[in-house]
Design goal:
- This protein is an alpha/beta fold.
- It is built from 12 helices and 13 strands.
- Strand 1, helix 1 and strand 2 form a beta-alpha-beta unit.
- Helices cover about 40% and strands about 20% of the residues.
- The chain is globular and about 55 Å long.
- The strands form 4 sheets. It has a 7-stranded parallel β-sheet with strand order 3-2-1-4-5-6-11, sandwiched between helices.
Length: about 325
């Protein structure tokens, strides 16, 4: 019986991972999540509805930025096989308004988890990094070896996290796998992200806020594909430190995304256009050849199919999500 510690396990990506691992069997899970009020904690409770009474699941509601490695050792006495660190203060634009909070959560929180990892002699650490570390870079598609020029405090904390992992990998023989996620979407997606906001607005006949002229584009990656990449990284054992893109390998312009949402919902969008926002990048586009080679990663979900899954989830939980 494997024991996994998943931070941010009540969140969007984390709860998908928790549910899939428990459904697969052969493991117990300790989830750490502080239910940050960045968005409604009720949504996180919804995410955990299927697993919270599972005897193989345990929830610890601690703020990792304020919980030392020693404190974590006291809370978690059992041996741990793999740590999957998904917890982070999210959002590019809010990080510009409060950069110190992002340092505390994303850098100090990771530091505390790595100290816990070292004390518990855990050999495998999977870290959720972000495509935002690439910044403004027109060398498409982005390879992991690109020069990195972050343009937001959030992105900088993710880059700092990768380097912190490198230090611990070298000093303490911890296998550290940093996965650079590219715009994850699907059922359970956070309400601050574009697909959630746009779908909600279109369903309710409200205007969509579009920053720029609609030419910005993103490598939208379905959460089910992301989870396959995470699970492969949990098993990876060839080298001690890797940074790997986990994306979809094509970039969708914002105008095309809105059109796709209109098609899935059967409704027309009302668009209000605003200037580009500081910290946003014009395009993201992942080269996933390394993920394919090292992890056997092959994303297969088409945008339209992924949007349908999100739309159905939204309708099913509309009362809560419209609150």
């Amino acid at each position: 019986m494997k024991h996994y510690v998943i931070t941010g396990g009540a969140g969007f990506i984390g709860s998908h991972l928790v549910r899939e691992l428990l459904a697969s069997g052969g493991c117990s899970i300790t989830c750490i999540d502080d239910f940050d009020p960045f968005y409604s904690p009720d949504i996180k409770q919804l995410n955990l509805r299927e697993v919270k009474n599972n005897p193989l699941f345990r929830l610890i509601s601690n703020d990792l930025g304020k919980t030392s490695g020693a404190d974590l050792c006291a809370l978690i006495s059992e041996p741990v096989d793999v740590i999957i660190h998904l917890a982070a203060k999210a959002g590019v634009r809010p990080s510009i308004e409060n950069p110190l909070a992002y340092q505390q959560s994303n850098v100090i929180g990771l530091q505390n988890m790595l100290d816990f990892c070292r004390a518990k002699k855990v050999k495998q650490f999977v870290f959720a990094s972000s495509s935002s570390v690439y910044g403004v870079n027109d060398h498409f598609p982005w390879k992991e070896e690109e020069q990195l020029m972050p343009v937001s405090p959030y992105a900088m904390t993710k880059l700092a996290g990768e380097m912190l992992g490198h230090v611990y990998s070298k000093l303490y023989d911890i296998r550290f796998i940093a996965l650079r996620f590219f715009t994850v979407y699907g059922p359970g997606q956070r309400p601050d992200l574009a697909i959630h906001k746009f779908t909600k607005a279109v369903i309710n006949g409200k205007p969509i806020t579009m920053y720029g002229n609609g030419s910005t584009s993103r490598d939208y990656t379905y959460v089910g594909d992301i989870i396959k990449g995470v699970r492969a990284a949990m098993q990876y054992n060839l080298t001690g430190f890797e940074i790997i893109n986990i994306g979809n390998n094509y970039s969708v312009p914002l105008k095309d995304l809105i059109s796709a949402i209109e098609k899935v919902t059967g409704r027309d969008a009302v668009i209000e256009q605003y200037p580009d926002q500081p910290g946003d990048v014009p395009k993201t586009y992942a080269d996933i050849s390394k993920a394919t080679a090292l992890l056997g990663y092959h994303p297969h979900t088409r945008l339209e199919d992924g949007l349908k899954s999100f739309y159905n989830w939204f309708l099913e939980n509309r009362a809560l999500l419209n609150h």
